[in-house]
């Protein structure tokens, strides 16, 4: 729950009180213009978070000046969940990359094996069946010559029929051996061509598998890089929930405490730059006696013996329609005492007499 600070209430009371006292007086004897004003910071900012969450740590209190530490940190459930999802996604993509690299390794092995098989198929020869055919043909010719001799002897009744039949059987057997050798050679040629075709097909498929595996690895690597970026961004978003402020600025209000929940845009701190000006609100009828550059002196009640120089810096062009006053800002110059926001100040301007 948002806390109403006593300090803020005191400030509001002082503003209302001194706004009512800001009137100009003219001393005819000395031609001195007097006014009452308030010490105000030149620059004031509100510090809030862009997200909703729980305030985990507050490093400063009212009155502290901002240094190196962040003002406060806030835990966002959505940012933490985003980081967890990014971490999970990174793990999944890294696992996928590892799997795709293993597939690529297997694809390279498969291609090398297919290359060896193709080389073997291309290098396969028909030397053995060709030699067998050549040998069977030589044996056939030998049997042919022998059978012709037996035929001549049988025709002259110089050879028994049984011996002639045996010779004819050997000749026919040699013919059959030639036919079988020719068939085995033809079959070997067909087998060799089929093996070559299968080896070429396997090699082409292995090349395609390797190309697909390489593309898959490349895609997985891109996915990992993207997941790494997403994780880094999620970490930065979580770290960005440590809210910092400009060094040297001073804290004047604190609206929340540690452990409380805030919504996006809610102010946690009000900070000021420790440079001050004086605000006076004279009646608009006194405007003719005041102009930018008019010099004067001021003193605050806390240091009545330490006056300091002021100069009219700017005059707000808008008049308060309800009170008929306007805001005039005085720049503080030279040495000055330790000032605090919303101190009461008495100002004197010495006017040139006629």
What features would you describe in this structure?
This protein is of the alpha+beta class. It has two domains: 1-42 and 275-354, Elongation Factor Tu (Ef-tu), domain 3, CATH 2.40.30.170; 79-239. The protein is 48% helix and 24% strand. It has a six-stranded antiparallel beta barrel with strand order 2-10-13-12-11-14. It has a four-stranded antiparallel β-sheet with strand order 6-5-4-8. Strands 3-9-7 form a three-stranded antiparallel β-sheet, with no helix packed on it. A hairpin with a 6-residue loop joins strand 12 and strand 13 (326-333). Helix 2 (77-123) packs antiparallel against helix 4. The longest helix has 79 residues, at 161-239. The model is unreliable at 1-25 (pLDDT under 50). It comes from Halonatronomonas betaini.
What can be said about this structure in brief?
With 354 residues, the protein is an alpha+beta fold. 48% of the residues lie in helices and 24% in strands.
